[in-house]
Amino acid sequence: MHFDDEIARVFAAAGLAEEVAAISQPSGEYDWRNAEGRTLLHFDWGAAGPSGWPEANMFSQPQLESVLAARADSYPNIEVRRGWEAVTLTGGCSPRGTSRRGTRTSNATPCIRSRPAGPTAGGAGGS
Predict the structure, then answer these.
(1) Which of 14, 17, 53, 120 has the most CB atoms around its CB within 10 Å?
(2) Quick one: which of 97, 85, 105, 6 has its CA closest to 50?
(3) Which tens digit of pLDDT belongs to each residue from 69-121?
(4) Distance CA 69, CA 32 (A)
(5) In terms of residue numbers, what domain contains 94?
Protein backbone atom coordinates (compact mmCIF):
# COMPACT_ATOMS: atom_id res chain seq x y z
CA MET A 1 0.00 0.00 0.00
CA HIS A 2 1.01 3.62 -0.47
CA PHE A 3 0.55 7.01 1.18
CA ASP A 4 1.95 10.36 0.09
CA ASP A 5 3.67 13.25 1.86
CA GLU A 6 0.38 14.93 2.74
CA ILE A 7 -0.88 11.84 4.56
CA ALA A 8 2.51 11.55 6.29
CA ARG A 9 1.98 15.13 7.49
CA VAL A 10 -1.47 14.17 8.84
CA PHE A 11 0.01 11.17 10.68
CA ALA A 12 2.69 13.45 12.19
CA ALA A 13 0.07 16.01 13.26
CA ALA A 14 -1.75 13.16 15.03
CA GLY A 15 1.46 12.32 16.91
CA LEU A 16 2.05 9.13 14.92
CA ALA A 17 5.21 10.07 12.97
CA GLU A 18 7.53 7.63 14.77
CA GLU A 19 5.06 4.73 14.79
CA VAL A 20 4.22 5.13 11.10
CA ALA A 21 7.89 5.60 10.11
CA ALA A 22 8.69 2.30 11.84
CA ILE A 23 6.23 0.37 9.61
CA SER A 24 6.76 2.19 6.30
CA GLN A 25 9.57 3.11 3.98
CA PRO A 26 10.04 5.80 1.32
CA SER A 27 9.50 4.46 -2.18
CA GLY A 28 12.52 6.03 -3.87
CA GLU A 29 12.70 5.44 -7.61
CA TYR A 30 10.02 3.62 -9.57
CA ASP A 31 10.11 2.56 -13.24
CA TRP A 32 7.44 1.31 -15.61
CA ARG A 33 9.01 -0.91 -18.28
CA ASN A 34 7.70 -2.61 -21.38
CA ALA A 35 8.20 -6.29 -22.29
CA GLU A 36 11.62 -5.51 -23.79
CA GLY A 37 12.75 -3.86 -20.56
CA ARG A 38 12.73 -0.32 -21.99
CA THR A 39 11.77 2.31 -19.39
CA LEU A 40 8.46 3.91 -20.27
CA LEU A 41 8.07 6.10 -17.18
CA HIS A 42 10.52 6.95 -14.43
CA PHE A 43 9.52 8.44 -11.08
CA ASP A 44 11.99 9.61 -8.45
CA TRP A 45 10.05 9.90 -5.22
CA GLY A 46 13.11 9.78 -2.98
CA ALA A 47 13.05 13.47 -2.10
CA ALA A 48 10.87 15.15 0.47
CA GLY A 49 7.62 16.57 -0.87
CA PRO A 50 6.24 20.06 -0.22
CA SER A 51 5.09 18.98 3.26
CA GLY A 52 8.61 17.97 4.27
CA TRP A 53 7.89 14.22 4.27
CA PRO A 54 8.86 11.64 1.61
CA GLU A 55 6.61 11.98 -1.46
CA ALA A 56 5.79 8.27 -1.62
CA ASN A 57 5.75 5.74 1.19
CA MET A 58 5.01 2.02 1.13
CA PHE A 59 3.43 0.15 4.04
CA SER A 60 1.55 -2.98 5.09
CA GLN A 61 -2.12 -2.17 5.73
CA PRO A 62 -2.52 -4.56 8.71
CA GLN A 63 0.46 -2.91 10.42
CA LEU A 64 -0.95 0.59 9.86
CA GLU A 65 -4.35 -0.53 11.15
CA SER A 66 -2.63 -1.83 14.30
CA VAL A 67 -0.91 1.55 14.83
CA LEU A 68 -4.20 3.42 14.37
CA ALA A 69 -6.13 0.99 16.60
CA ALA A 70 -3.53 1.31 19.36
CA ARG A 71 -3.81 5.10 19.24
CA ALA A 72 -7.62 4.97 19.34
CA ASP A 73 -7.47 2.51 22.26
CA SER A 74 -5.30 4.98 24.20
CA TYR A 75 -8.23 7.42 24.43
CA PRO A 76 -10.97 6.50 26.92
CA ASN A 77 -13.56 8.52 24.98
CA ILE A 78 -13.12 6.61 21.69
CA GLU A 79 -15.08 3.46 21.03
CA VAL A 80 -14.26 1.54 17.85
CA ARG A 81 -17.14 -0.56 16.55
CA ARG A 82 -15.82 -2.90 13.89
CA GLY A 83 -18.35 -4.38 11.51
CA TRP A 84 -20.86 -1.54 11.95
CA GLU A 85 -21.91 0.98 9.34
CA ALA A 86 -23.30 4.42 10.20
CA VAL A 87 -26.22 4.87 7.83
CA THR A 88 -27.94 8.01 9.13
CA LEU A 89 -27.26 11.03 11.31
CA THR A 90 -30.32 12.03 13.27
CA GLY A 91 -30.81 14.67 15.94
CA GLY A 92 -27.56 16.45 15.16
CA CYS A 93 -24.76 14.03 15.96
CA SER A 94 -26.38 10.75 16.95
CA PRO A 95 -25.29 8.22 14.34
CA ARG A 96 -27.57 5.26 13.88
CA GLY A 97 -25.52 2.20 12.89
CA THR A 98 -26.59 -1.08 11.39
CA SER A 99 -24.93 -4.43 10.83
CA ARG A 100 -25.89 -8.06 10.63
CA ARG A 101 -26.03 -7.92 14.44
CA GLY A 102 -28.76 -5.27 14.66
CA THR A 103 -29.10 -1.53 15.09
CA ARG A 104 -27.38 0.80 17.58
CA THR A 105 -27.53 4.52 18.24
CA SER A 106 -24.56 6.39 19.68
CA ASN A 107 -23.96 9.85 21.08
CA ALA A 108 -20.95 10.96 19.09
CA THR A 109 -20.06 14.45 20.25
CA PRO A 110 -18.32 16.23 18.82
CA CYS A 111 -18.97 14.67 15.45
CA ILE A 112 -17.63 15.48 12.01
CA ARG A 113 -20.05 15.80 9.14
CA SER A 114 -19.46 16.64 5.52
CA ARG A 115 -21.68 19.12 3.76
CA PRO A 116 -23.24 18.19 0.44
CA ALA A 117 -21.40 19.65 -2.52
CA GLY A 118 -23.06 22.57 -4.21
CA PRO A 119 -24.27 26.04 -3.39
CA THR A 120 -24.87 26.99 0.22
CA ALA A 121 -26.99 29.76 1.72
CA GLY A 122 -24.01 32.11 1.34
CA GLY A 123 -23.70 31.27 -2.35
CA ALA A 124 -20.32 29.48 -2.16
CA GLY A 125 -19.94 25.79 -2.96
CA GLY A 126 -19.19 23.36 -0.14
CA SER A 127 -17.64 19.95 0.19
Answers:
(1) 53
(2) 6
(3) 999 999 998 888 777 776 766 656 666 666 667 777 666 665 655 555 555 44
(4) 35
(5) 81-115
